[in-house]
Every structure is written in C-alpha cells, then in structure tokens.
Amino acid sequence: MSMLELVWLIPLLPLAGFVINFFLGKTLKFSEQVVWLIGCGTVLLSLLITLGAFYQYAFTYAPAHGNAPFITSYFTWLPGGAAHNSLGNNDGKLSSFNIDWGYQIDQLSLLMMFVVTFVGFWIHVFSVGYMHGDKGFYRFFSYLNLFMFMMLLLVMSSNFMIMFIGWEGVGLCSYLLIGYYFDRKEAGDASKKAFVVNRIGDFGFALAIMGVFATFGTLQFHDVARLSAQYSVEHLGHFGLMSFLALGLFIGATGKSAQIPLYIWLPDAMAGPTPVSALIHAATMVTAGVFMVTRTNFIFQRSATMMLVVGIVGCATAFVAATIAITQTDIKKVLAYSTVSQLGYMFMGAGVGAFVAAIFHVFTHAFFKALLFLGSGSVIHGMHHEQEMPRMGGLSKYMPTTYKTMLVAWLAICGIFPLAGFWSKDGILGETFSSIYGGGKILWFIGFVTAGMTAFYMTRLIAMTFWGEERFRKVHAGGEADEAYASAVDKGERPHDALLTSAGDRPHHLPGEHVGPRDVTDRQAAAGIAHQHFEPHESPRSMTLPLIVLAIFSAGAGFVGIPRAITALGGSKANFHVLERWLAPVIVDPNQRYVPLPGETGASEPASEAGATAVNEARTEGVAAEGGTGHEPVSSVEYLLMLLSLAIAIGGIYMGRLFYLKDLSLPRIWTERLKPLYELSRNKWYWDELLDVKGVEAMKAVDNGLFAVDAKVVDGGVNGAGWFTKFTAWVSGLFDKWVVDLAVNAVGWITRAFSIVFRSFQTGFWQNYALIFTLGLFVTLFLYERHAIPVVMEGFVKTVKSLFGGGTAE
Fold this sequence. Notes:
The chain is mostly helical. The protein contains 29 helices and 2 strands. It has helices at 9-24, 32-64, 107-130, 137-156, 160-178, 185-216, 221-227, 241-256, 265-268, 274-283, 288-295, 297-300, 304-325, 331-351, 355-382, 400-414, 420-433, 440-466, 482-491, 541-556, 564-567, 578-583, 609-621, 636-662, 666-673, 675-682, 687-761, 766-785, 789-805, and strands at residues 70-84, 94-105.
C-alpha cells in the first residue's frame, strides 16, 4: 500500500491520541509517561507518514500526473442533493450539493503538513518537561492532539466545507488551550476574547463559502480553480463578484491570522501555557489565514482591488505591531506582537502577488518563532516563572543552551544573512518593490522600516534577557507567571497570598490572590518583605533538545529559497529557488483560458483576447504575477535591495545594543523626548481601549437601548395585552356568574319552587283528586259567573231586609 493511500491516518492518529488521553487519562489514572508517549507518539507517526507521502508525491505521483493534486474521497459527509446556483455565469442552473469527506494532497498541503507535524512534534516534546507536575497533564496533551487533528484537517482538506471544519476546530482548540488555567479570570477572559473575535472573521468566511457555491456550483478547490478561469480580472477600483468573494475570505483570514482590526486577541492569548503560544500562536494556527489566501489565490488574483487591500492591511499590521513590540516588557508579549508583525509581512507578500514568498515566510517563520517562544518558555522555567524582562538580565551564563539557540532565532528574525529569515523576508520586500502596483514602493518602504524596528526590539529582548547585569539579584523576581499559579494550585501547595497588585503589562495578580511559591512585585520592599534570592537554571533535556533542532532549521531552512540573484553571481542560470519551483503548480495564472470538461456546458472560451488584454491591464494597475522564469536578467536593483535589507537589520541590532547594553540611559532619555509616541506604543495605540470604549461600550449602549425598548415597549405591549385580557376575562367572569349563571339558576329555582306545590297535589288518593276536581269546578264556575255575584248578593240583601225589616221588596 502506498503512503499516499495512508494519508487518512495523518489526522486520525492525533485524534485517537485525544480520545485516549481525554476520556481515559483521568479515569484510568495514566501516569505522565503514558500520557506523553500517547500524545507525542501519535504526532510522530503522523510526521513519518507525512514524510513518506511527501517523498512518494514528489518523486512518483507528481511526475506521472503532471503535478496534479492527489485527491481522495472517503464518503459523502453532507448529502445535500440538488441546489440552484444564484450568482455568476451559472445563475439558475442546478448543481449537486453533496460534500465529500476527502483530502487534497499537493505541493501546498504537503508543505503545511510537514510544518504542522514537525514543529508540532517538537513542541509536544518540549511540553513534557515544561508541564511536568501539572495536575491537568493528561488534559493538556489531549487538547494539543485535538488541535493537531483540526489543523491537519484544515491544510489537507479538498473542499471549503472540510476546511471550515478544521478552521472552526482550531478556534475551539485555541479557546481550550488559552483558557487551560480555567481557575484564572485572565485566562478565561483571554480565551473568550479569542473565541469571539475569531467568530467575527469566521462569519465573513462562511458567507464567502456560500458565495463560492452559489457562483461555481461546487466547493472542491480543484474544480473552483478551474472554473474561476471563466471570469476575467476585475480592474483596480472595480468591485465585482470575485472581489466580494475575496473580501469574505480575507475577513476570515484577518481573524484567524490576527490582522488589523482583528489582531487584538493574539497578545492576550499569552495567558495560556508557553507551548500553546509556540504551537498555536506562532507556528501553525495563525498562519492558517495566509494558507487559505494562497489556497484560494485563483479568486484573489481576479480582484486587483482586493489584492491591494490585502497588501495594505498586511503592511499596516506589520508596522503597527512592530511599534507596539518596542515598548513591551513581558517577554511573551514582545513575541506576540512580533508574530502579528510577521504575519503582516506574509499578507503584504500575498497582496502583491508574491504567494510563494508569503508561504516561504510561513515556512521559515514557523521554525524561528516556535524556537523563540519555546526559548522564552525555557527562560520562564529557569527564572522560576518570571516573565518580566526588566527583572532578568545576565542569563547567558546560567542558561547556555537556551541562550545559544535563541541567538540563532534572533538573527534569523532580524534577517541576517544567511539565516532563514533573511531569504524569506528579503523575498517579500523584493517582490513588493518590483510589483506593478502604483504604490508598491510605498509598501516596500514601510516594510523596510518595519524590518529595522524588528531587529531593534528583538535585540532589546535578547539584551534585557541574556546580557547586562543580573537585575534579578536586586529586584523581586520569580513566581509571577500564570503557569506557576496554576501549578501551585493543582499541587495543593499551601497558598501564598499576594500583598500588592503585580506590576507589568500581564495578567495581573490582585492582593490576596495565590501566585505560587512567593509573592512578586517590585514594591515588596515597601511592604517590609525581604528579597529572596534564587539562582536561574538551565531547562531539562526534554526542553532543550527541541530548541536545538529548531535552531538548526532556523539557520538552514532558508536555503530552499535561494533567489536567482545569488545563483547568478556564480554564473549559473539555474533556478535554485526550490520552493518556488515546488509551489508553482498551485499558483494559478489568471490569464489562463477556461477549458470545459467533456459534456460540461458553459462558455467555452470566456478568456478571449479581450479578456487577456483586460488581465494585462489589471496587472498593470495592481496585480503582480508570481514572476521569474529563471532566464530573465538579474537587475542590479535586486542586489541593492538585498544590501539594504541586511543594512537595516544590522542597524536595528546596533541601535538595540546601544540602547540596552552600552548606554542604559538612552531609553529613559528618548522616552522623555518622544513621550507621546512612547505612550502611544506602550498603550498599544489605544486600540483595545478604542474598541472597548467606542466599540464594546457603544454596543452595550445599543444593547441597553434595545433592552429598554424590549422591556418597555415590546414587553409593555405584551404585558398590557395580557393585563387587558385578564381584565376582560374578569369582567366576563362576573357577567357569566351574576347574569348568565344567575338566569339559569333562577329558572331552576323557580321550577323547583313550583314543583313543591305541584307535588302536593300528586298524593295518589282518588278522594283528594275528587276534592280538587270539585274545587276546580267551583273555581271554574266562579270565574265564569263572577259578574253575576254582585247581582245575586244585592238581591239576597234586599230579601233579608224585607224579611226582617218589614220592608217590601221592590
């Protein structure tokens, strides 16, 4: 059985690790060794199968199938049946909405699969030592495994719907891992913030998926890429169907990859354990947006307007995040904003059409940024859970392995030749400068300045952490990180309550809150607490080995993307940019003609000469193609740009050493001179406050207004209707009781009364009946002869008088 036929195991193995550890780890009381063997072993097996599939695809399948993707389908996941298309050229036609569960193995997915499994494996190994002793050890590794499953599902998916499952899945895992220390309010708030902000972007992504099906009648990437050739490029300034689809996709990307304005969740996500920061928020999940934009480049390249938007947003994000990183003091926060800035570089590259350069930076960034985060975790571990750089210093002699490996990552992210970051960052800047954008050189200049700031603040991080005096001997340090808090609680150690609020831009500890082995704040002296000295120490081998491996890749990974300008120096015309040649098949040429499949209806040649002309015009206005055939002459400008990139990196390093090693008064002096800019940077451009006051508070006001309308108008109407109904029912009840019921009862009462009388005549004796008959006869005679009674009585009276009175009768 070939390795390509086993790719279904790549995501399934980490899922199995999650199921075993999560559902059985606590019940069966797995030891830490059993848990990490399952967690790390499943990821290692996925890595090995990925390497086998990589080899087979590259040397067997791709050459035999013209670099076509290997697409496999296992079962129908959503049997939706027939559905009408409502957009584009296929408006009104029927399509089948049957979503298959399948994977697309091609050059792009294999590269990302390798990054996810390779970096993920070493982060798992690092976690073995870092999370040692944590009561939730089994839960942590199960969450990591679940994330690996979702991330692999995202990059391996063959259609938009399966990608969306992975997309939402990594969001769920991010929520679980950021809020891993669920007994801390800060971690809970950060996880909810990440979840909500990502849902904003995901809403745009979901709308785009609906639009893609309504337009193309399919959600398979391979089919949509082919059918997209029916549509010509929309010129700069025009916003047609392709632009709307690209907009929805990009909104999703801004949420997941932390771009303006949805980047605010990523720095707060540092509340999670440091391995989480390395895995999710540096190497894999946050690059999902760049991967998705590259995967759907066939849509983006047909909208010059959206390409420009992507480039501008990426450039602005890179600059803003770099300015914020300059003033942060929490070592993880500096790296968080550095990640946001580097993601901005990637989007800037994608925006100018340099998709290969963007993915190249994704590739190199995964190694050196994961190394920096894991290195910071090693520092936090060695400093007894301290994260504030002003409380460190001089750690190079205490943590030699951590220091040396972080030096490699530092030089790589600064862009020093010949480390990995130099090649990928220079590729983005070079493509941006040479793009056909009208404002391409403006984007290049901002990116160029940002590169200098990157070198400055990263040198500041290294200097404050590893160089200079040992400040931890003079100030209170240790025990302030969130990991120490949760670990101490889980271990059931005697609580040690803080006396004062902790300092620094970090999850704050409040008075009375348990913070671990000791209370930490620079103001302890004022509280009469003596400083307790501790010695920093190097991390165990399980933590330093991943640092060494990642350092090797941070140094050498860039050699897969050597530009032609370098090879041309030796007189070679060959293209040694391996990654460029490898990814070329997945970058669609928007000038390609649409070729319908046999029996397929539709326009057979929409990309006519006029369409090709429109494409070329649109490119002139704003779309830069992925260039370079390997035979074009190398311009001297390329060498100048390389030298400038190297010079700005060296300049930033020099300034960092000058400020934070040579003359420690300079930061204070320039802080006073640039007070407004310093406050702007220190307060993160007030973006969080702006969103909270102007955004969240405004929405709260709207919600309160809607609540008032609901309570007083809607509920008032409903309650009023209820009261009126109740009142009318009460009146109706009275009427029914005292009128209707009274009338009915009165008839009964009357009938009953008369029945008593009538019953008295029904004795059963004939004598009584004869008497009644006789009485009746007399009554009848009386009634008929009543008019004669006065006459008879008058005659009777006269007769009596005549008899007894002696009178005569008249």
